[in-house]
Specification:
- The structure holds three protein chains of three kinds.
- Chain A is of the alpha+beta class.
- Chain A is built from seven helices and eight strands; from the N terminus they run H-H-H-E-E-H-E-E-E-E-H-E-E-H-H.
- In chain A, the strands form two sheets. Chain A has a six-stranded antiparallel sheet. In chain A, strands 7-8 form a two-stranded parallel sheet.
- Chain B is an all-alpha fold.
- In chain B, helix 1 runs parallel beside helix 8 and helix 8 packs across helix 9.
- Chain B is built from nine helices and no strands.
- The model of chain C has no long low-confidence stretch (mean pLDDT 80).
- Chain C is globular, with a radius of gyration of 20 Å.
- The longest helix of chain C is centred in the middle third of the chain and has 31 residues.
- Chain C is mainly alpha-helical.
- Chains in contact: A-B, A-C, B-C.
- The interface between B and C is large, with 47 and 47 residues.
Chain lengths: 242, 204, 218
């Protein structure tokens, strides 16, 4: 061991090369071995959010009902996804794998009128639930989710949210049932047929009034949710009025 | 352009690496005893962040993400090397820090002496790697990530110089012995963080 | 190596030479991920694994590493282990990996790792290095656990999903159902990452008033 000159250039380079090959090879192996599981997790996460919005269950029910097998079976059999354009016409009968909702919405080079929006429908008991995809800005970063509407396209069936970096315990509470369950059964329009749905600042919800009480201590996340729901309904307005 | 100024202000003040995300605390607490060394370390961090963020962006976009290698041969379109990301980012950072170390040693031996062992520690300063990782999750483009790097570095500079100045003054006050030094530095950082939280939610 | 030494390697970093409160290493993640106990535990476990195995690897290689690229070799070993942890989290605990997001990657720059490699693994045999890694990882995890429990309990009124304070506390136990436990308001400050910095400051205060050797003279 003492004969080895660990400071020579050749040794240093050789050591680096061997190390890079070993480490790179091992990582490539592990990553390709785990990739199917990771992809399946991401897909399941997306499907679970859609099913959460559609089924509008309570926390206990979600914990017991929404297991992987059930979500996948239900999604494969009953959920149909398609793309609509701004005028509300169906352009693609299924959602192509190349379609990326976030990219589509963020791409400033596509005017709103030429963007395509995904819709998921879920049929049970002869009634259709329409699921719209939402994206918006919270306090720190992106917030997103799914909004499920009843057959009449006016009443909220359920909703599911997700976020990238809201404050844990405050803004991040938007994923909790306690907040989401307030949306269930609310109508988006007033008697005159105008859009009228507000996510109020925490504690500002008028007693017995329409709307949703916001997240305590997270005014800006709450504002972000309000803006996100509003812009989503406006994006899909032509589809909804059909 | 306005967009870039927004990113700068946001990364330096509203989303300050140290006081809001608490990244880079190790060297922040260790090198903040005097203003002079704090300025040196702060400047080094600005420099390193300003270079590593865009370089790592270029590497990621052109070599690592799915479809990035399509220019070599169409069959490489499906390759995705993102799992090598962490190793490559940290490698780039380590190499650059080494470079900064050599430059400082050559041009300012006094600063080199006073920074001492803390220069290599920039490599393991979370705010540097944090800069790269946040830049990725925020999906910035090249110019934006460069500005983000400079802004975050400036935020670190500001925070460490401010803490050092307070600690210099603090030497004349009568702090309970067990709280002296490190304990007090923590409490002050907390108070500074609370103050910076007042900037939260500024819409830019 | 005697038993006393082995025990010291494991127990020292828990208290008298704790990586966070005494060596001031690895503070960043201690502050950001301690919002609740589950995250704190997972982070502690991940760091313990990475410190232990990186210490072991570097100690095995210590006579072969070219001195000029020492840092790079250490970082590659650490980054390799962290990437593994991150991939396994994504595959087997997707929700947690989403919640910890960039902080898993930031384990790489957790100074505990580099600090222990430099200070211990480069000059010691594999087994003691491995134990030193476990000890330091556990010491780190212990502080995370303490901070996480305080923040979760007072910030949200519950611990590991079980509610202790607030309206929903003990709602199925009649004699505890009213009074003291309900009068509690959640402390908004405790929910924020900033709370952990005050808690750490106070932990350091308590620790140093018990052990005068640690007091900072300057």
């Amino acid at each position: 061991m003492s004969k080895l000159n660990t400071d020579s250039n050749a040794y240093t380079l050789g050591f680096l090369a061997v190390m890079v090959i070993i480490v790179g090879g091992m990582l490539a192996f592990v990553s390709s071995a785990l990739k199917p599981t990771i992809d399946a997790n991401q897909e399941l996460d997306r499907r679970t959010k859609i099913m959460k919005a559609i089924l509008s269950l309570s926390a206990e029910e979600e914990a017991t009902v929404l297991v992987a097998d059930y979500v996948n079976a239900e999604y494969d059999n009953k959920v149909k996804g398609f793309l609509v354009n701004y005028s509300g016409e169906v352009v693609e009968e299924s959602i192509p794998t190349s379609y990326d909702f976030r990219k589509e919405m963020k791409d400033a080079s596509i005017p709103l009128e030429s963007k395509l929006f995904p819709v998921y429908t879920y049929e049970s008991d002869g009634k259709k639930v329409h699921v719209l995809q939402m994206i918006g800005l919270g306090l720190w970063d992106e917030i997103n989710g799914y909004l499920a509407l009843e057959d009449d396209k006016e009443t909220i069936k359920g909703v599911a949210f997700d976020h990238k970096g809201e404050t844990p315990g405050l803004g991040a509470e938007l994923v909790k049932n306690k907040f989401r369950e307030q949306f269930y059964g609310q109508t988006l329009y007033n008697e005159a047929g105008e859009y009228d749905f507000t996510v109020y600042k925490a504690g500002k919800l008028p007693a017995g009034g329409k709307g949703v009480d916001g997240l305590a201590g997270a005014t800006l996340t709450t504002d972000g949710i309000q803006a996100m729901v509003k812009s989503t309904i406006s994006n899909y307005s032509n589809y909804l009025s059909k | 352009m306005g967009d870039l100024i927004n990113i700068f202000v946001k990364s330096a003040f509203v989303e300050n690496m140290v006081l809001i995300y608490f990244l880079g605390m190790c060297s922040y607490l260790a090198v903040s005893k005097t203003v002079k060394t704090a300025v040196g370390l702060g400047a080094a961090v600005i420099f390193v962040l300003a270079i590593t963020a865009p370089i790592n962006w270029i590497i990621r976009e052109n070599l690592l993400v799915e479809g990035a290698l399509g220019w070599i041969h169409p069959s490489f379109e499906t390759l995705n090397f993102e799992f090598l990301g962490l190793i490559i980012y940290i490698g780039v950072i380590a190499a650059l820090v080494q470079l900064v170390e050599m430059v400082i040693e050559k041009f300012s031996p006094a600063l080199y002496m006073s920074l001492g062992i803390f220069l290599p520690l920039i490599t393991v300063n979370c705010s540097i790697l944090g800069g790269t990782l946040f830049m990725i999750t925020k999906e910035y483009n090249l110019a934006q990530s460069a500005v983000f790097g400079i802004g975050s570095g400036f935020g670190f500079f500001l925070a460490i110089v401010a803490l050092a100045a307070i600690r210099e003054k603090l030497r004349y006050s009568n702090v309970p012995a067990p709280l002296r030094g490190l304990g007090m530095a923590f409490i002050i950082t907390g108070l500074m963080g609370l103050a910076f939280m007042g900037l939260m939610g500024i819409k830019l | 190596m005697s038993d006393v030494n082995t025990r010291k390697l494991l127990s020292d970093p828990l208290l008298d030479n704790n990586p966070i409160t005494v060596q001031v290493l690895g503070v960043c993640s201690a502050l950001a991920v301690t919002g609740n106990v589950t995250n704190a535990l997972i982070m502690g476990a991940a760091v313990t694994m990475v410190t232990a195995f990186s210490n072991l690897t570097i100690s095995l290689l210590r006579n072969y590493i070219p001195s000029r690229i020492r840092m790079i070799v250490q970082l590659v070993v650490i980054a390799f282990l962290v990437t593994l942890v991150s991939l396994f989290l994504q595959a087997f605990s997707y929700d947690l990996s989403k919640e910890l997001s960039v902080y898993v990657g930031l384990i790489i720059t957790n100074c505990i790792l580099m600090g222990r490699l430099e200070a211990f693994a480069l000059g010691n045999k594999p087994l003691p290095s491995f134990l030193d890694g476990i000890g330091n990882g556990l010491g780190y995890g212990l502080i995370l656990l303490i901070v996480g429990s305080i923040r979760e309990l007072f910030g949200t009124g519950s611990l590991l999903g079980f509610t202790f304070f607030g309206e929903e506390a003990f709602h199925n136990i009649a004699f505890l159902k009213s009074g003291f436990f309900h009068a509690f308001f959640h402390n908004g400050l405790m929910v924020l990452p900033i709370a952990s910095i005050f808690i750490l400051g106070i932990i350091i205060w308590i620790q140093r008033s018990k052990n005068a050797e640690l007091v900072d003279i300057s």
